[in-house]
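QA checklist item 7 of 12: single-chain prediction sanity check.
[x] sequence parsed
[x] length recorded as 337
[x] structure emitted
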Amino acid sequence: MSDRLVDGYDLVVFDLDGVVYLIDKPIPGAAEAVGTLHAEGTAIAYATNNASRRAADVAALLTGMGVPASADEVLTSAGAAAVMLADDLPAGAPVLVVGAEALRAEVREQGLTPVERLEDAPVAVVQGYGPDVGWRVLAEAALAVRKGATWIATNTDRTLPSPRGPLPGNGSLVSVLRTALDRDPDVVVGKPSPALFRAAASRSGATRPLVVGDRLDTDIEGAVGAGMDCLLVLTGVTGPVDLLTAPPARRPGYVAADLSGLFAPADAAQLLPPDADSAGGWRLADDGGAVRLTGDGTPVDALRLLCGRVWDGVAPGDVRAGSDAARELLTSWGLPG
């Protein structure tokens, strides 16, 4: 029997930005990884906080990149928000939409009326990412919420990954209204809410889902909240020091450099306990109140080893280098070494 990580699960739920692609380009190896899962009959879902595309558009985008996908495999925060609104509001109710045309289309498809101004008497405001969101619509939304409209955010991702570095995400736009209104949204639909992950599992009938993401504050926290195992890949937002300093609610069970980790042995990606003293070619020894990393190996093995010790109370700045390779690695992570 195979001991690959993926073989322990009956559904793999992928985040998109930073996991499968960056903006409009597939991450190396992603198409091959998804293609292998499809060929082996493993159920797949894509759960994204990005509210600027509809499920069919996301599937078409992925297919165009060579990543196998169908619309029924895609769950978006825009679609989930529109369904939530339709469950709570009468047919035809006016909803002020802050975001892209995809979010307006989802609201319209659920039998509600997208509007743009306070004068249209919106009973709810739904806010999602859109590259053209500006002051005017944010001002109308602030006025509507002050007048009593329910405020729903599709997600609160502070940033979006890009080849040039993180860019402002919907969470940054939500912060504009939060500052103006001195309050939080009434509901946040997307990750880290576990709703998208639970919907994916329910849709496929899965009992052993694995969530794969690149963000601790959305993908991993959402998976932990849903009680699902999760794999962090280091192809997007999260870096090694982010993982070392993660609070308990944002700690994955597995970490890998990229999606190839799905097909490696499970114990090659598993985060190690505090008493572990070796991983791959790395060794770890107590050094007073600090720890000393020696040897050589992959960055992921060093990270798997160090997380257990740091999460047990050793400060990241108290990780010392005991070899040239360790010094070079820690320095590349921004630690003293």
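[x] summary fact logged: The chain has a mean pLDDT of 94.
[ ] second reviewer sign-off
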